[in-house]
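Private note to self, pasted from the team thread so I don't lose it. Backbone tokens:
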């Protein structure tokens, strides 16, 4: 794992890649596009024709020579290790079906560029790694508590589109464990998971890093999701996952989702939000998932008054 130091001067821009904890304490003459190496690490430099002298550069310090002023920032590369299940494609025994990938229906570009997500990220995949179930949208929030993790607390540079695999693990669009540069946090780090037709969830407590990686497993307890059973459910004994049936992605499973399902009933080999079990078709099995999650009708009127499952991810602060 490496840190990256960005040194911004009056006349040039320099990027140096160094090992964790290493201090640059040398003098070099750099030319345009020159390469520098020391102690097995190396970095590529932009246009610069002056001698750059540094003296024990650490985060936030400044130094300079011959009218050249520099400032150094150290940013650490961090990993994230997540585990989660979607109810729709879930199979007993801790795995999910890969029907969309098997039918070659997964889009090459991330699918969250429309309302309500309006995510403009450029994640793409030329080919899909083995075992991919679908795209998900991962968001990090920096807040003192889960209750106060409002959208305003979303970490800069997030959300990001990633792949969910059949075993519940999450990888980036290149097929690798997600890594990122994490800015200085003010409080605790909460993770939000969004999907096209399952209710979004957020971790109930902040993640704690270990060996440079943040880890969170949503699958082993109802209490792992903020709000518990109000927006999350048990899929089989001791296994928990995101609730299926939110076709319109409005944060609840209700009658509008059924209306969309009816409009797409019978369509096959199409990437649709009404395909709740993600088997490449919109059919009665999808309605069964929706019906199981809508709750119980009023015994007198026979009408459904309010949704049973509602996403508990904190909305805008009121």
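Design output:
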């Amino acid at each position: 794992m490496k840190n990256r130091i960005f040194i911004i001067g009056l006349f040039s821009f320099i990027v140096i890649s160094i090992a964790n904890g290493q201090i640059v304490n040398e003098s070099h003459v750099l030319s345009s596009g020159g390469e520098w190496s020391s102690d097995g690490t190396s970095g590529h430099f932009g246009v610069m024709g002056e001698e750059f002298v540094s003296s024990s550069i650490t985060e936030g310090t400044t130094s300079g020579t011959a009218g050249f002023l520099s400032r150094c920032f150290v940013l650490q590369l961090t990993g994230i290790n997540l585990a989660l299940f979607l109810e729709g494609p879930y199979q007993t025994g801790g795995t999910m079906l890969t029907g969309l990938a098997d039918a070659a229906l997964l889009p090459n570009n991330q699918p969250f560029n429309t309302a309500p997500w309006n995510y403009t990220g450029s994640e793409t995949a030329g080919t899909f790694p083995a075992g991919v179930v679908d795209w998900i949208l991962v968001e990090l929030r920096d807040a003192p508590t889960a209750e106060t993790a409002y959208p305003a607390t979303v970490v800069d540079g997030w959300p990001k589109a990633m792949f969910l695999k059949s075993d519940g693990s999450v990888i980036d669009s290149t097929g690798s464990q997600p890594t990122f540069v994490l800015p200085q946090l003010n409080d605790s780090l909460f993770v939000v998971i969004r999907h096209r037709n399952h209710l979004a969830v957020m971790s109930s407590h902040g993640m704690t890093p270990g060996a440079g990686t943040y880890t969170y497993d949503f699958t082993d307890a109802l209490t792992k999701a903020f709000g518990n059973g109000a927006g999350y459910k048990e899929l089989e004994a001791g296994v928990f996952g995101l609730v299926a049936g939110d076709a319109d992605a409005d944060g609840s499973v209700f009658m509008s989702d059924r209306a969309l399902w009816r409009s797409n009933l019978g369509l096959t080999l199409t990437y649709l939000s009404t395909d709740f079990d993600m088997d490449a078709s919109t059919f009665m099995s999808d309605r069964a998932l929706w019906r199981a999650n809508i709750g119980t009708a009023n015994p007198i009127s026979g009408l459904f008054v309010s949704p049973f499952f509602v996403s508990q991810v904190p909305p805008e602060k009121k």
